Amino acid sequence: MSDRYDPTDRDRFTFGLWTVGNPGRDAFGGPVRPTLSPVSIVELLGEVGAWGVNFHDNDLVPIDATAAEQDRIVAAFRKALDATGLRVPMATTNLFSDPAFRDGAFTSHSPEVRAYALHKTMRAIDLGVELGASLYVFWGGREGCECDAGKDALEALKRMREALNFLTHYVKDQGYDLRFALEAKPNEPRADIYLPTTGAMLAFIETLEHSEMVGVNPEVAHEHMAGLNFTHALAQSWDAGKLFHIDLNDQNGPRYDQDLRFGSCNPKAAFHLVRFLERVGYEGPRHFDAHAYRSADVEDVRSFARGCMRTYNILRERAEQFEKHPEIQSLLMEIRAGDPVEEAQPPYTSGKAAALKSRTFDRKALGERALPYERLDQLTTELLLGNI
Predict the structure, then answer these.
(1) What CATH number labels 9-324?
(2) Is residue 56 annotated as part of the catalytic site, yes or no?
């Protein structure tokens, strides 16, 4: 059965090969579903109405594949993309699974490991661009430590900076139309990962030689793992002009990375992030970096993928209703009402500063002004529950 919540290409919904292709493996048990080939995953995503598919290099091409094997795999993948109409907007590199990276990739103590990480990333960038990617994401899953005595955080940041500077120069030298997006995570698989939050990434980006090429890829679960408000991370990223990509999923508080189906755990938080993206006019891909339950079979994986996209579209409709609801908008006007006297606002002038210093304030009235957040939040909740 189809309805208005089914996805269309206008939604720009994407999934990674590693998401719907996850065979249900976790830290305590092996696979419970068949391993799907990249071609099968593309076909599945085409069936459920996704717009695009993203990949780590080794999601598509095994790390030990020969050149001939890579050519065969990539040709079959491209044929599947053509048949389904899916595109590849983003690619990334797996710098965390292989034992060589057990103590980091770009931040490893070993110059040989750091060189291999650059080698692997350049080759993966070439592959991503070949398949149409215009964005490249960096998640430093092993760029951290368990033992502060053994790792120098300042040196690690220097090495991260050197690696990204090297790679931005490589992209420019090749003439690629490609931007980078950095993805933060506070922990797992390391006890502590360097640059653990989106705010930390934004500060780090400003130290790069080609910072204009580099933005962020905030992920819902990763900010929630740090106990932070994801919509606030989006606002900071957007304000900085650095919201290049986004990873949508869900997370039940600060615990291990759950990668739950989008909106399945915290629908109100999901609503506010959807409302934010739609209100500011975000035009990038809406990528679901989530996994079906370990209990799911392949058919239930299809339900998982459809559910991520349908939930986004339902929340988009609720956001439109929020913007048009008379009482909600009236409450917002009341809450946002300012003093009718002209306020001192930037840019600074000495006259404005003098006028503000000499102004008399009614502190009592300021402390008594109505702020009906309870009513507003209840109406938001009832809107989400379908009661208004």
Answers:
(1) 3.20.20.150
(2) yes
